[in-house]
Design brief:
Layout: H1 2-16, H2 20-25, H3 38-43, H4 48-78, H5 86-98, H6 103-112, H7 121-124, H8 130-141, H9 145-153, H10 158-169, H11 171-186, H12 190-195, H13 204-220, E1 225-227, E2 234-236, H14 238-254, H15 257-272
Antiparallel strand pairs: 1-2
Protein name: Carbohydrate ABC transporter permease
Organism: Cohnella nanjingensis
Subcellular location: Cell membrane
Length: 275
Amino acid sequence: MALVTLLPILNVFAMSFSEADAIFKHPLMLVPYNFTIAAYEYIFSTSILLKSFFVTVFATVVGTLFNLALTITGAYSLSKTALPGNKILLWVCIFPMLFGAGLIPTYMLLKELHLLNNIWVLVVSGMVVPFNLILMRNFFWSIPEELEEAMRIDGASDMGILWRMIIPLSKPAIATIGLFYAVGHWNDFFTGLFFLNDNTKWPLQVLLRSIVIDMNALNTRGVTAVIGQDATKIMLTPENIKAATIIFSVVPILLVYPFLQKYFVKGIMLGSVKG
């Protein structure tokens, strides 16, 4: 199972660092042939890729912070059974998990909020995922109430308890939910495709689609790109460029996993077996 997942990644990685002739001779390569970085020089030759990269980073970082702030405060409130209307509010959160409004109502709502063709639509749309809210609520529910009562005796407020005790104890769950949100923002494709018309505001995934489509069109016409001068010319095919773009869009989010791996499984287990 691991090889089935890993081999295509190695193949794309090798193609991104190989010359065009080598790709034609070895289409299923796992290591680069005739190593070159010409494909990466080509995709970085225009500023639009870097703009899309920073748009995606902005949406991922700012969006994840907003997501976590709303999810943590909402889950902490719902974890209190003494909250008036707790069950009703919980059902209000669960209902969107079963039934969605659809694309047209979402489009009309974002239009009324003046978020169409606005970079903030990547942050605002989907601020809270109900599944993550329920998962976080179950985690908070598992924390002994005696700890909160001890802090209340010391004069702590609800926000003080949340900030000084609940959040430090919930680092595994917060890291897990944060990873879910971050990956969701990084891989978000439909929001940019449907609600952003200006290509300078496109996230990386929408730009990647555009590059793949354009390169396929070039491929059908047999067009190649040339990098270098005279004897140092290196021919690039659409396969080189697509592979380099894919690797560029995948690597940053993959680098996040090693730092959160120790929290990931622990957070999922603690949030799911309790309640």
